[in-house]
């Protein structure tokens, strides 16, 4: 059982806060991160947690929106062997509402084979990807929270240099919170402190 400490972090200049384990480092200290993203990584386990603000996709229904975004991620990353493992029902998030319009949340879990950075298909890792989609309709924004957890590391992948190749060490053996719980905690503690982040609609 993990006793890992989750700390509240400031996202997007403090306009949003969310809590997740301390072991995740801000990737913007290491590399360029787009303005609409906040990226946190644990290099020792090759795990990452990403918060992303997107224009609201009005043509995507609430039911299954997270699985739509998950499949979109798979296409974007040129993934192979994509498999949707599970998806949730739509739930309201009364703690996140703008002008009495509560956010709705869906989630999905998938598995896919993807390469790191500019590496080719021969270096693909098998990864489990968790996606939560918080739909902030009052400010016409889709928030994506995405967690990446390696299942099998390819010896040709640059990840193998940091964590070794083969089956990834389960979180339970390392005494850390598994990614399925990391993303649940990040979503359940997600708060908007400054709605002006979303521009004129706020």
Automatic annotation (TrEMBL):
Pfam family, one: Mog1
Any Gene Ontology CC annotation: nucleus
Entry superkingdom: Eukaryota
GO MF assignments: guanyl-nucleotide exchange factor activity; small GTPase binding
InterPro entries (alphabetical): Mog1, Mog1/PsbP_a/b/a-sand
TM region(s), chain numbering: none
The protein's name in its UniProt record: Ran guanine nucleotide release factor
Record organism: Brassica campestris (Field mustard)
